[in-house]
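Retro notes - structure team

What went well: the batch runner handled both jobs without manual restarts.
What didn't: labels got mixed up in the shared folder, which is why I'm recording both outputs here explicitly, each with its sequence directly above its tokens.

Job 1
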Amino acid sequence: MREMIKMVMVLTIITAVSGGVLSMLKTGTEDRIENQILKFQKAPALEAIFDTATNEPLKERFKIKVKINEKDEEITFFPALLGDGSRAVAFEAKGAGFGGDVGLMVGIDLKTDKIIKARVTTHSETPGVGSRAKDDVSFVSQFTGMAMDSNFKVKKDGGDIDAMSGATVTSKGVCLAASNLQKLYIKLKPQIINKMK
């Protein structure tokens, strides 16, 4: 019986120490991971979307908490002052593609509620097929100029977007991400404008 108690105590101590070490590692690397994601995923998309920005959207980013699918999440927004004086914001949402989630970032003009440009930021799609959503900007260029009350579905499903040949599931995933962005924008626009003041 003593051996059993001793073994349970040793396992408890090992588990507690391991948990503490993992917690410290997570806390210690969170900022580095976020900086790498910003540098290699979000920054290239922002540069393409806001190519006439007179400010630095990446540095001026802010977060808003929102409930998504019963979970509290923080959405990062990137404000921009464009060369023509208009104000815009970019942010990202995800939609389920063929190989996993597809991240889509869009820039939206705050006065007209129209999409300035869109870019795929992340994906796990098949190289040469679904990966074209990120590599070939002609697909996501269809979102340019669309109002935030548009029907972000592929034409086969009654929407306004031409699906990529051979990559219908990926196309639907990008459209789902756009629909998710649309819902978030409509819900959070007053808070976005307030944060940008």
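Job 2
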Amino acid sequence: MNLLEISWPVFRLGEHKPTIENNLVYYSKEYVDKESLETRIGLRIVDDKSMQGSTLGLRRLIITGARLFPIRQAIYFLGDLIKIAKQTTWFIDNTGKVFQYRKSSRAKLTAYKIKKVLPLEGMGAIIEVQGLPQRFKCMYAPKPEQFYAGILRWGLSYVLYGFYDEQFKATYRLV
């Protein structure tokens, strides 16, 4: 899947690909019922695109009579997706597209001194770093002991990768 086709936020599903049939995205698991000793199949619904609703969240709100697959982790930024993606990890975007993010190139990771932290109302912060004209949005402010921001240079773009206690030598990451 092309990064331009992703509708954010993205949600981590796990290490196994869900089954996709007739606009239904689900996980199934076979188990033995302890009382009757019968083999049963447990279904957990991730998404049902046949329901009304333009987003995954809206459709999940109106699904009734079925167990929902728990979605525990939302990813709002590309840097976070890059960090947690493995070859076996499956994701679903806000519109219900199931995909894997495959790292295929390298990007230089450089530590920049944090110049200013602008807190946002509610949640998050805007980060300014020395040496770059652009600002970076994040879901949380750096801890007081974190004076450096790790910034990936990927093509012509800069991506916030994380916060660090000390400056490190420039290195490369697979993205």
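One thing worth noting from job 2: The radius of gyration is 20 Å.
We'll revisit the folder naming next retro.
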